[in-house]
Amino acid sequence: MTKKNDYFKTICDVSRAFGTTSDKDQLLGLIVESAVETMKGKAACLWLADEEKSEAMPVAQIGLSKKYFQASIHADKIVSILEKEGYFHARDATSDSRLEEHAVKKAEGIASILIVPVMVKGKVIGVLSLYTSKPRNFSKDEIDFLTSLAEQGGIAIEHARLLETIRENTRLFHDLAASINSSLDVKSIFQTLAADIAKGLGVKASSVLIINKEKQTLELVASYGLSEKYLDRGPLSVGKSMAKTIQGKSVVIKDATTDKRVQHREEKKEEGIVSILSVPIKAKEEVIGALRLYCGVPRDFTEDEVMLVTALALQGGVAIQNASMFLMLEEDMKDLKDDMWSHRSWF
């Protein structure tokens, strides 16, 4: 009963901390410290999946040496077990065939490991690991307690992600609005947009394409993260290249190397492009081009992400309208001056 009281008190303490700080690092640090203290472990670490590198990266830990983290951690096997069983336990971590780097674990003084998933919206995004210095089995209560701490970690990570998303979206809109307000150089504005949106959404690359009505092709006006070889791959046909975008609809391509809607599939494979989001750029109600994001790993773009990219693409359309109106105004002013000089010649 004492242990259960300890678990309850720890969960309450962690929950209380969520109400006093939004600092993700502080909250995750509290979670790993609580795991070690309450479960009498040697060490604990919260790992997050890095999809680009197919590795797990430590984001909070206590009790482990720097040398331990020099060995890369591939958690694919562990994640599949977690998805099926809900937890992973190795009584002897130095010999368990499901684990890697046995010598590193032995040198670190690790005997047993208990691993539970860190989940956000039903998806495993990382793991919380508890390490002991002596061989140990874990009770259901202990597994449930560590799982509860991992859930708290998932909440902290998702909360921090949402806050960062709000800040980043605000910054993207501010930077684009500032560019539109301070310059009529459309190429410069789109180059800023391409770079900012790729960095902001954490994608591999981006491009801005404008329709050439005479040739019925899409012409590149700005890009970020794409090689010269890929950019020189040849023209894109308006009719073939994701026709729905040209019709004014957003398109998500999960695998650009096999999807028949995509042109130059082999070149995309060589470039390391997997998923694509393509949204229309409009001037008033007319589609004049497309803004595209490219990912190096399979990605399901959320509805919020699609809405953000669509909104930014619309701002790009506004930039083109502004530049066009300015050129028209310049032409009107020139005509007006010519008329004034012709009238003066009467006197």
Automatic annotation (TrEMBL):
Query: Which residues are in the GAF domain?
Result: 23-167, 185-330
Pfam families in UniProt: GAF_2 (PF13185)
Checking SUPFAM superfamilies in the record gives: GAF domain-like
Q: Which SMART domains does the annotation name?
A: GAF
Mind telling me which InterPro entries this protein's record contains?
Answer: GAF, GAF-like_dom_sf
The source's domain of life comes to: Bacteria
Identify this protein by name. Answer: GAF domain-containing protein
Q: Which organism is it from?
A: Candidatus Desulfacyla euxinica
The major lineage groups are: Bacteria, Deltaproteobacteria, Candidatus Desulfacyla
